[in-house]
Write a structure and sequence with these properties.
single chain, alpha+beta, 142 residues
């Protein structure tokens, strides 16, 4: 196998270069995951509340991004609340299905992320079905 560099590379040098490249890739991937978790909204037990409303819009992540968080826009009186649920894959695993016009009850935390207000759902009730998305301390269960 020819070395892409003008001088001769030994098998050991190529193996070392390959291992070093893999290591750098893994470190970069771990850093990106930590950054994503750092930007994730934090549940605040102090702002936990219950709301009831009607689903105005179901916002699912695009195909291929099912691990991203699904949202609902819920009409609560005159207000529309952005309801942060869980990854689409977790919804599917739990058998959750939501449609415009569904009446739901939510327990969760109202928080601000930048300029946006979010409702981080801990528990959602639709009809006779209750789905727990977070534990009693607000940590995700997915």
């Amino acid at each position: 196998m020819a070395c892409p560099i003008e001088f001769s590379c030994s098998k050991r040098s190529r193996r070392t270069l390959l291992l070093l490249s893999i290591g750098l890739f893994l470190v970069a991937s771990a850093g990106a995951q930590k950054a994503a978790k750092a930007n994730a909204p934090k549940y605040d037990l102090q702002t936990e509340t219950k709301i009831k409303g009607t689903i105005d819009e179901v916002k699912l992540p695009p195909k291929g991004s099912e691990r991203e968080i699904a949202h609902l826009l819920v009409k609560n009186g005159a207000d529309t609340v952005d309801v942060y649920l869980c990854p689409k894959t977790f919804m599917d695993d739990m058998g959750m299905d939501f449609s415009k016009g569904d009446e739901i009850s939510l327990t969760g935390s109202k928080i601000k992320q930048g300029e946006a207000e979010l409702f981080l759902t801990r528990e959602i009730v639709k009809g006779n079905n209750t789905f727990a998305l977070r534990d009693a301390k607000g940590a995700p269960v997915w």
